[in-house]
């Protein structure tokens, strides 16, 4: 923590490094899961997909670190110093922060599926046709551009220190690593337990639904930690049919650059082709009324 936004006696640990601090646990978990599936179902871990996920994770972490240093912490610090009040740093206030951040995460995640500008970043995470712990690493370096960090500004304005806000976000994401797995998928022995737990907390079963492209599963289960938000806002669906992972317009490549920028490229092409800037904030499946006119005007080849 820095003197500008830290309480007296606060830890010197940089919360921006929280996910890196968890890296050994993440890597050991991936290794154990890969070993488990090696003889049971080798297709769960594709070598190319796993390498691609690792490359995307490194790119994402570098981008996050750069933008945190460049501007994000400065914005949070300014907001904190001009906010409502200073929230005391106690255990109960940190629990409150985790709850509020998880609430805001729900809306960030939902917007990331329903606003194309944000989907252009988030689609990278959903583009894998596999599901294992390494899929959690599959992130985009463009999240700072699409505006993920904007969703946490209210927390600083309320009075939580910027470092606490960043720490809460990191812990939420660290928790979500462990819901990216097929372990226990549709296992009748534990189905009742997972269904009960999923009513309250994000679980592998709940999150497999979120990653599926089955029509009944698309744009469901946005929970970070608590699924009560999905239930409150009508987006919860339990896992029943076996999920088919991926996106409806599948990108068949393991190239991290293509996986990062393909939707930005397509969005730009749609805006210029139909001369309609609404593509930036409309849902990913939306098409401009001008699209049909544009198609009719195109010469047949």
TrEMBL record:
<feature type="transmembrane region" description="Helical">
    <location>
        <begin position="141"/>
        <end position="158"/>
    </location>
</feature>
<dbReference type="GO" id="GO:0016020">
    <property type="term" value="C:membrane"/>
</dbReference>
<dbReference type="Pfam" id="PF04116">
    <property type="entry name" value="FA_hydroxylase"/>
</dbReference>
<keyword id="KW-0443">Lipid metabolism</keyword>
<feature type="transmembrane region" description="Helical">
    <location>
        <begin position="164"/>
        <end position="185"/>
    </location>
</feature>
<dbReference type="GO" id="GO:0050479">
    <property type="term" value="F:glyceryl-ether monooxygenase activity"/>
</dbReference>
<dbReference type="GO" id="GO:0006643">
    <property type="term" value="P:membrane lipid metabolic process"/>
</dbReference>
<keyword id="KW-0560">Oxidoreductase</keyword>
<dbReference type="GO" id="GO:0008610">
    <property type="term" value="P:lipid biosynthetic process"/>
</dbReference>
<dbReference type="GO" id="GO:0012505">
    <property type="term" value="C:endomembrane system"/>
</dbReference>
<feature type="transmembrane region" description="Helical">
    <location>
        <begin position="91"/>
        <end position="108"/>
    </location>
</feature>
<keyword id="KW-0812">Transmembrane</keyword>
<protein>
    <submittedName>
        <fullName>Sterol desaturase</fullName>
    </submittedName>
</protein>
<feature type="domain" description="Fatty acid hydroxylase">
    <location>
        <begin position="94"/>
        <end position="235"/>
    </location>
</feature>
<dbReference type="InterPro" id="IPR006694">
    <property type="entry name" value="Fatty_acid_hydroxylase"/>
</dbReference>
<dbReference type="GO" id="GO:0005506">
    <property type="term" value="F:iron ion binding"/>
</dbReference>
<dbReference type="InterPro" id="IPR051689">
    <property type="entry name" value="Sterol_desaturase/TMEM195"/>
</dbReference>
<keyword id="KW-0472">Membrane</keyword>
<feature type="transmembrane region" description="Helical">
    <location>
        <begin position="50"/>
        <end position="71"/>
    </location>
</feature>
<feature type="transmembrane region" description="Helical">
    <location>
        <begin position="17"/>
        <end position="38"/>
    </location>
</feature>
<keyword id="KW-1133">Transmembrane helix</keyword>
